């Protein structure tokens, strides 16, 4: 197939930086540019959508407390659902990714990102936090069952003048493009979806036809059978 006939890759850039200017956003932007360049070398184009989590702060409390998703949260989830790949970057606070970053991904349905290709990145003021990406962020995305690239990117203050940072960014970008080109997400979910232990409501509504009034379901919910039997 001629590559010109293929649709562009959809990449969502999730940035948890809150300062302006933000080194976390700068890292996310550099990754996005290198992903576009790596795809272009293979004759592919990329549509990039920037998702700045600070814009979701007014809706975050309700999402965490009750699961109620406001319009911005809903739009963000729809973007992630349809994305071919994701770039996720966070600032490091208190030796871990920011609460805004972790809270956003904790709100998401556990099944939303199954096999989604992801590049992880983080920024901090000191190199002492370099293991946060692989020690904490990667474990979160493993729980969400994403396909994280082998290369993650960490940038401390002194790294921005180091050519090695650019090499890591290029390597991570190339790995993301390879994962998207392989269509790994579709291949895994198309063949293995039924073998996952889904949460109620996570299968797109397919399981919502369950008869909740059956004797078995009433018992499972702690109710009683007709006549008061348990």
From TrEMBL:
Keywords: Flavoprotein, FMN, Oxidoreductase. InterPro entries: CE1759_FMN_reduct, Flavoprotein-like_sf, FMN_Rdtase-like_dom, NAD(P)H-dep_FMN_reductase. Its EC number is 1.5.1.38. SUPFAM superfamilies: Flavoproteins. It comes from the Bacteria. Residues 10-160 form the NADPH-dependent FMN reductase-like domain. It is an enzyme of class 1 (oxidoreductase). One of its GO terms (molecular function) is FMN reductase (NADPH) activity. PANTHER family: FMN REDUCTASE (NADPH) (PTHR43408:SF2). NCBIfam families: LLM_duo_CE1759 (TIGR04037). This is FMN reductase. The lineage of its organism: Bacteria, Bacillati, Actinomycetota, Actinomycetes, Micrococcales.
